[in-house]
User: Fold this.
Amino acid sequence: MNEPNPSELTQAALNQARDLGADIAGAVAWDRLMAGPSYAVQPFMPTWGGVGAGHPGRAPEPDLDFKPISLVVVGVAHPGGEPELDWWQEHIPSRTLGNQALAKVTKGVARWLREEHGVAARDLAYHPERGGVFLKDAAVLAGLGVVGRSNLFMCPELGPRVRLRALAVGAQLAPGEPLDWDPCPECEGPCRPACPQGAMAPNGRKWPPDAPSPLPGRDGAYAREVCNRQMEADITDGRMVDLPEREQPSKQVRYCRRCELACPVGRGAIK
Assistant:
């Protein structure tokens, strides 16, 4: 089989992602992602034991049966009026309806690459310590958006109201380039006071002086352990709910989105 043309294969793969339900999609070189800011700064951070507990030191690269050369990152819109997309639901294998929709896209594109082009590809888990990658880094490097003052990924079309997932690809794709776009400098920053825990106060995260630059989160004000207090409170407040499609009740957790919903970028966008 002839080696597929990187530009043509990339465009076809991104079109396939959109056909399967993605609202944004882009590509990045694997090596560039592995040298990204989150991977660079992680060894300088303390061992994490909160919600979505991380890996001490550098997160391991995904364990794949092929050598990844590129990565496709996709996003689906999560409008403020559809909160149920992000409700953690005990009986759903992917835990949220949003992640379920994303997995349909990434698994579908991976299957299409394998069957139609003979290219090794695989859907990746959400968490880096469970076989995934740092999705915000991937989306920024693929040219889909930026990390805002809220420490959230945001894109021009949807602001921060978007959910991400990725697939590894064993072929060269034409990578995107980071956007020359930054909505935050002229913004009053309603995301920061919106946080019920004050996780983005100026006295938040203090990065070690020998940590590399550029750092995630722009100015280091985001304190992950403080944000985690709200996530733990949300878990405590989780409850068993009756659903029409199930005979038995299922536990549901509604995680906080206040910083995200306070952001004016992309507000009112319609999928």
Notes: The chain has a mean pLDDT of 88. The longest strand covers residues 70-77.
